Amino acid sequence: NRRFVLAKRPDGKPDRETFERREEDVPEPEPGEALIRTLYLSVDPYMRGRMNAGESYAEPWAVGGPLRGGVVGEVVDANGSGFETGDIVTGNLEWADYATAPGSDLQPVDPDLAPISTALGVLGMPGRTAYFGTREVARPQPGDTFVVTGAAGAVGSVAGQLASMAGARVVGFAGSEEKVAFLEDDLGFDVGIDYSTTDDYRAALEDAAPDGVDAYFDNVGGEITDAVFTQLNVDARVAICGQISLYNAEELPTGPRKLPTLIEKRARVEGFLVGDFAPRFEEATRNLGRWVSAGDLEYRETVTEGLENAPEAFLGLFEGENIGKQLVKVGER
Ligand code: NDP
To answer: Where are stretches of biased composition, namely Basic and acidic residues (predicted)?
Structure first.
């Protein structure tokens, strides 16, 4: 059984040395625990926070301890867990070929409803983050201008489409020409801005959103967010979902930020965690599933083959190598 542990805490940017791969026996499930064979593993930006010693909203990983994340797998030994052998389940499991978990920590995945990988993407945690962040925090109204950063990623791509469905004009920031084409041609965004070739984010935004910004869904932070703040309209809503441009910073940059506009515009800036909406997860999954089935919600996945390449897949999130949800395919169904 191949499994990854945290080799050391990264200073700044993590690299291959942050991870250690071990070969161990397949774990024996305790009574009530299932043994699961990993099919897909999710790598997510929040995992960077778990590599630090300090408190973040997710508990720090121990050095030498296992890495964990969203997994979709097949129950190979049900062992009184409440599942049956052959069931497809999802849960927060180790980065490994095989892992054990109590039945109460696993949720069933219906392979007839949608491809099973979507339980980690559009119909999983990232989809739900977009759902609640857009509808409950940024709250785009018909005719509003909605801006999203990290727009071609797992969360951003869904957030922008939900804002379109709400009747907003949607502008997305993403890091390549290919991603901008994805936003405009496949997802129906009104305008995509390739920030990697743009020096003046504010001027680009003035062109893309001449009526200003009513709702902003931020996955990135930093200078792009500074530029968006200068363009907010009165009563704008800002949903702070993520700040990936700062996750590898050894020291958070300080300096003049565009906060005076918030006063003038009576804007509301609100951070949120998807977990706060746990009592409504079923509603989100049901609606997202319905929209995907109806063809109203598009999604894309970038699939890296092989558990051994999970570290590269994770590191690639910080280089913008993914379009849509980044997954690692670990086993064949
Ligand atoms: P993505 O699929 O969006 O992948 C990350 C993307 O971020 C990359 O593809 C890259 O795209 C972009 N990026 C990376 N580094 C930078 C940078 N320095 N500046 C600008 N863009 C950068 O990941 P997710 O959809 O899973 O997550 C998106 C955000 O949502 C993250 O910040 C994450 O932490 C947050 N999040 C928050 C949750 C919550 O409960 N609040 C829950 C889930 C996620 P590009 O090529 O465009 O640069």
So the answer is: 1-24
Helices 154-165 & 125-132 angle (0-180, nearest 10):
40
Task: Output the residue whose Cα is nearest ligand 1's atom 14.
Answer: 318
Alpha carbon of 243 to ligand 1 centroid (Å):
7
Output b/e per residue, 13-25; b: 16+ Cβ within 10 A: ebeeebbbeeeee
CA–CA separation, 90 and 126 (whole Å): 14
Partnered with residue 19 across adjacent β-strands are 6
Contact at 8 Å (CB) between 103 and 83?
A: yes
The three-point CA angle 273-278-283 to 5° equals 115
Closest protein CA for atom 5 of ligand 1: 317
Condensed to tens digits (0 to 9), the pLDDT of residues 191-247 reads: 999 999 999 999 999 999 999 999 999 999 999 999 999 999 999 999 999 999 999
Q: What pairs with residue 108 in β-bridges? A: 89
Convert the pLDDT of each residue in 148-188 to its tens digit: 999 999 999 999 999 999 999 999 999 999 999 999 999 99
Ligand 1 — pocket residues by CB below 6 A?
A: 44-46, 126, 129, 150, 152-156, 174-176, 179, 219-220, 241-242, 244-245, 272-274, 317-318, 320, 322, 326
Which class is 125-275 in CATH?
alpha beta
Q: How far is the CA of 244 from the centre of ligand 1 (A)?
A: 5
Burial (CB count <10 Å: 0-12, 13-18, 19+), residue 60:
middle
CA-nearest residue for atom 43, ligand 1, is 126
Q: Please state whether beta strands 301-305 and 325-329 pair in parallel, antiparallel, or not at all (unpaired).
A: parallel
- Taking the centre of ligand 1 as the mean of its atom positions, its distance from the CA of residue 306, in whole angstroms, is 22
| Architecture category of domain 2-121+300-329 in CATH | Alpha-Beta Complex (3.90)
The CA 134 to ligand 1 mean position distance, Å, reads: 15
Measured over the CA atoms of residue 117, residue 120, residue 126 and residue 129, the dihedral's sign is positive
Q: Where are the domains of the chain?
A: 2-121+300-329, 125-275
